[in-house]
Amino acid sequence: MKYKFAKRMDLLTPSMILEISAQAAADSEVVNLSAGQPDSPTPDPIKEVGISAINDNFTRYTAGSGIPELRKAVAEKVSRESGIERTSDEVVICNGAKHALANTILALVDVGDRVLLPKPYWVAYPEMVYLAQGEIIQLPMAQETGFRLTPAQLEAALAADPKLIILNSPSNPTGAAYSREHYDLLVPLLKESGVMIISDEIYDKLLYDGIEHVSLASYPEIRDQLILINGVSKTYSMTGWRIGWAVAHPEVIKKIGNIQSQMTSSPCSISQKAALEAVNQPAEELTPMLEAFQQRRDRAVELIAAIPEVEFLLPEGTFYVFFDVSAYLPEVPPDEQNPIRSLDLAKYLVKEHKVALVPGMAFGADNHLRISFAASMEDIEEGIKRIKEGLAAYR
Ligand SMILES: Cc1ncc(COP(=O)(O)O)c(C=O)c1O
Question: Where would I find the beta strands (DSSP E) of the chain?
Answer without folding.
Answer: 31-32, 91-94, 114-119, 135-140, 164-168, 196-200, 226-231, 244-247, 311-312, 320-324, 355-356, 358-359, 368-372
